[in-house]
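Anyone able to model this chain together with adenosine-5'-diphosphate?
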Amino acid sequence: MSRRFSSYIAGQWIEGEGGHADENPSDLATPVGEYGVVDAAHTAQAVEAAAAALPKWAFSTPQQRADVLDFVGSEILARKEELGRLLAMEEGKTLPESIGEAARAGQIFKFFAGEALRIPGEKLASTRPGVDVEITREPVGVVGIIAPWNFPLAIPAWKIAPALAYGNTVVFKPAEIVPGCAWALADILSRAGLPEGVFNLVLGGGRTVGQALVAHPRLDALTFTGSAPTGHALLRQAAERALKVQMEMGGKNPLVVLADADLDKAVECAVNGAYFSTGQRCTASSRLIVENAVYDEFAARMQARLAKVRVGDPLEPGVDIGPVASGAQLDTDLAYIEAGHADGAELLAGGEQVEWKTPGHFLAPTLFAAKPSDRIAREEIFGPVAALLRADDYEHALALANDTEFGLCAGICTNSLKHATHFKRNAQAGMVMVNLPTAGVDPHVPFGGRKASSYGPREQGRYAVEFYTTVKTAYTSA
Ligand code: ADP
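re: yes, here you go
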């Protein structure tokens, strides 16, 4: 175990304190490496470095920004196998999924390299004679990025790339359990030609480093992806000081299966959406809402399909689902399985840990036949645990789909154009899928939700410009 991951502040690598293990959830005896944590004073230094670098970077040329982002994207793409392997070992996603995520991170940097050259503006005629009106977009300033562990390359990429493309400077705080992926991104960014202080990485805890970042008066904007309780607490804190925020929080995403659906396709959508990436996606289908007429058949097919799913080390070929990412998350998942039993839900599959050659956090994909009021059907679990709910008909299924505090993604499997069209219009979610898993989105179009799932402007694609810029209206009289 020779790898040590450190922070990057004002163009310098900062070792940080201690030797915290960067665990491999598939093999707890063999950590991926270790990392040191920085403190509140280092975090303040990072914000101040970003603030000092801002005036120059805000006026850097679009070409300079495009070149930096293109360099980063090209290197990530060229090294996607190696970076994917690191991701698979650190977070537990299967190797094909991990390599896919690395490739996506590279493509996102490439996309925003292009966007840096297309920063939009408008020129309008004034209502007054002899006056011109120009509407331009300027950087919002120093952007704090607080990221989760479930997409340790892609989520930082879709926050860092637009921040830099639109002329902002960045302090990036990754989740504690994925320092290696964060360090790998920082390593590439440190060689991309950025002036000192434009990009900073701070490794450390949420309550220490995260809080020091959010509380710093020089921070202009905060983009957060993580759990709903943390996000809502940060939202209140941000409101007190009128910080511009973008929050992506939890989901309790429904997948509706109607009686007229192609059931083979519906089962694949459900298995992919609920269990791939170990169910650790905010867009995971954690509520499978099935029309009465096909409920028993669907449940039986799910049981048969889940019996064939292979749980194990994500580096091993043929493994479909890797481990739960951490001991803390495994405890949460097991507690929800207990809650499912306590609420009287019927266990249809899984429900227990799985043995592997190495000691790890392996959990069988778990399916309960549940009631809409059960905790497992209402609260976000963030693990391979799904609730199967029975619906009388389409209207009942739609009502159940919308009966949640969350509103990230909603899916439907149907061959009815009428129901698909109605569902797209009436599902209370930021994203809707028809005959597709709820998880799995394109990188060039907006991502985000409604209700308790999201707050603030959308992420990704051209819509990212809303959060990462502020609008100026200029009037000129010749
Ligand atoms: P999870 O429980 O899945 O780790 P969290 O919402 O707690 O989800 O974490 C998401 C990110 O928010 C992580 O980078 C974490 O360190 C950070 N974080 C957690 N608590 C706080 C906090 N009080 N202030 C700032 N950041 C925090």
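The mean pLDDT is 97.
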